[in-house]
Amino acid sequence: MTESGETDRTVPERPAKDRPWVMRTYAGHSTAEASNALYRTNLAKGQTGLSVAFDLPTQTGYDPDSPLSRGEVGKVGVPVPHLGEMRKLFADIPLTEMNTSMTINATAMWLLAMYQVVAEEQNPELSPEEVAHLLAGTTQNDIIKEYLSRGTYVFGPQQSLRLIADMIAYTVHEIPKWNPINICSYHLQEAGATPVQELAYALCTAIAVLDQVRASGQVSEDDFEKVVGRISFFVNAGVRFVEETCKMRAFVQLWDEITRDRYGVTDPKMRRFRYGVQVNSLGLTEAQPENNVQRIVLEMLGVTLSKDARARAVQLPAWNEALGLPRPWDQQWSLRLQQVLAFESDLLEYDDIFAGSHVIEAKVAELVAGAKDEIERVQAMGGAIAAVESGYMKQNLVSAHAARRARIESGEEVIVGVNRFETTEPSPLTADLDGAIQTADPEAERAALASLEAWRAERDEDEVRAALAALADAARTDANLMQPTLVAARAGATTGEWAGALREVFGEFRAPTGVSGAVGVAEAGEALSAVRERVRATGEELGGRLRVLVGKPGLDGHSNGAEQVAVRARDAGFEVIYQGIRLTPEQIVAAAVAEDVHLVGLSILSGSHMELVPDVLDGLAAAGLGGLPVIVGGIIPSSDARALVERGVAAVYTPKDFGLTEIMDGFVDVIRTAHGLD
Predict the structure, then answer these.
(1) Which pLDDT belongs to residue 328?
(2) To pair with 639 at 20 to 30 A between CA atoms, which of 14, 35, 386, 455?
(3) Is 82 noted as a catalytic residue in this protein?
(4) Which CDD domains match (predicted)?
(5) DSSP state of 550
(6) End-to-end CA distance of the chain, in Å?
């Protein structure tokens, strides 16, 4: 009350708000021009940073005219085969004022070089050194997780680690605001990692990278703290948001301890765990996809509620990513989810709301202890590189994923709308399924080929050849490869030529699949036992054990689904031939002939199914195996699925077909039908 007896109506001041995280949308498709228009539209909608998705040829170091690029150009991202396309990609976007994240790994050095050159061209009044000092952003550049989950590696682990260390040394000295590596636990979770495995394997990767940088001698002891301070992480957040919150707090604690105790970093700011996040796409469902919206919100809360472990940048998938390529409106919806939380709620006005919680502290301690044990196991076998080459980490991920799939199929792990509460009203969001997603521009590949041809016609071939020769010569020494890469970019070399020059020196690598040593379904159960009996009986009728070839044609490296199919087929009694990722249709046909298989299963998630599946069918027919049944699995729109069946495919499976044992039963049906046994 005031002296006059009136109530004091003074409104209390609200607490000062924290600055929101960087809000991004992972985007890029078809052509550089189309992607540039999308970026400028998203920035106008309030997005505060760019996150660039590159197509698979760009990620794996091939030009659009490579046979391996067929069907893949512009499908899962934007093609950038040369400097001209990089110019188009960022036209009218001032790179010295932007924070750009580039999801690029094996070819990260090359894409960063082209990005820097475009920024130099945008700022002719500044020296290249001055421009470099203004650039801010991130290159993903985590090759170890590519061997374990995502599959866009090119070179062997040691050579890849050398490229990473060279980039880190260069950026620390020349692009000090750049995060040269974004160590990814995101893809580990999608490959099946438990929270403990996600923590341990990501941190083992960081240890391998920092040890390599220190051993290279390219960074002084005084500058090494800056290296640690520029390491960032890219994590996954699942729908178990309490556990995810605890996982992030465990990351903060473990990273602080590792950087302090192993590397002697004294500045707390340099020990800070800095991370961006894309919440879990693996958990998005094709069935009742409207439920994905609340899943995305819960997953976002897991990385934003805890101030002491809050993400620095967040990008959210769209509700319809399990159906196909999201439209701009779908991406806008996900951006608005972030903006409502950041600007309408009071979250950013408070200190950490979990501080002092006994429940949170106990779960964090449990995760930290488990992660430390697993880190010690990996370090005892020689570190992350040794654990990749031996297949240890990959087998563990495949086994953990198989266990999760088994829990979903048994109903122990509930997925709303998939294995419980399946009754649903018709959804207006998916009334027109083909209209609920964006289709890739069918002209993108032709446009990229024309652009490549024109680019080569205009450049100085002698200058390009000299630059590539100098790059190869440097690769044979221990010189930092960033400078010769910049020279090659300025000369007009292409993505495929840069990678090809290094392939000649470094060779290529095929990572272990993890399937042979993976643990499958421990308890068969009645359903799997029945399928096993059908497999055995059908094999006897056909005169031998049933053999299945699981193939991944094209450049799609997301092998999680193929691996789980291979493991469950083995558990069901099939003899399984699985040779890993990145096979040509010709190689798949040759394997089918050599192994005398009864069925070919193709897994494609990149959208190249309409090009690559017919190539396999035609190849089998030419080899005299036109009657061999072929099935296809992947993110395949319903209209495409119908077209594939009309083309001769025996069955099409999409994410809604989550029951692997039922799929195995379908394998038997297809084989019996093909041999006239029913």
Answers:
(1) 85
(2) 35
(3) no
(4) MM_CoA_mut_B12_BD
(5) E
(6) 89
